[in-house]
Specification:
Length: 351
Amino acid sequence: MTQATIQEELRDFAVELLEQCGGLVEWSSPDQDGTAVVPSRLVPLLHAPGEEFSLSCRPQAQALCVSLATDFLEVSGALLEAAVPRFGSFHLSDRYLKGGDLQQALDRAFTWLNARVRVRGSQPAPIEYHTWWFHAALRSDDCWETRLAVTLNSESLGPVELPDPLGLPDVEPCSAADVPASATYPAASRRAQQRLRDAAAGFISRMDARLERDRRRLRDYYNALLKETQPSRKRAAEPLDPEAVAARRQAVQLELRRKLAELDERYAMEAIARPIVLIRTSATVLVVELLVERKRARRKHVLYWNPLVKQFEPLPCGNCGNGAFAVAFTNDDVAPLCAKCAAASSSAPKS
């Protein structure tokens, strides 16, 4: 990415940010200065000279400098914290809901590993979906950052791969939210941490390779020092004191362990998944009631046919919370398990 491209993206970001916060901006090109008029409440946050000021990519008096060489990103962060909403509640207009033989559609979508599952009934109902946006980061000898979105059905707490609700043409703001954020945040946070590990796999692999490289260099260096402590025929005929040789070898080995411990501390990874935005979206879906029979036990479960993705939502695993289309059920309470958790449960030693 060239410097010109970076500056163009910074300009676009600055314009959109100020406009989202209620300002008026005219700035056609990073090569020229722009102008902005913002509400008075934003002036102290921007460290601006007044409600009207210039925008520039070069430091100058009476202007907000939009550049990575200045504190523009810190100023933008303060503005985002104070002036941009972190919560939004929306509603989607009703869409076509699945009809016909639901049992046949269910058996095509799911694999029931150890139980009989029958459809008992269905009805449309409004369901609220929570889309949590997280700032995700791994900090080690280097830093990796991204944004992650996790959408959960607020009733089932199952993850759902929905399109961005704010990008849908029929989305409308609504004033009330039925389900508190605390109902879905723990599950969303766990899901974000799982996705963080997957998304950062390349970064983790690079850090592991760098750690192993630095360990190898340390061992090579201190092994060379250990060789120097050994008696040599080419040296003086007087034999070296065995205790002195042992002490030197012990000192080198201790220093190597200390350096390796410092290296492990330096490359230790800190994972962060911090929520930044919650979007609540209400949509009418088809609620399908199931009767699950496992040996002599029976239990009702509920599935959702989602018109936004035009398919059934996965059934959440009762153990890990991940959505599954290949589902097993426990013997006693007929709780759903994904294939991975079912395999782990069957291989666990019986108490």
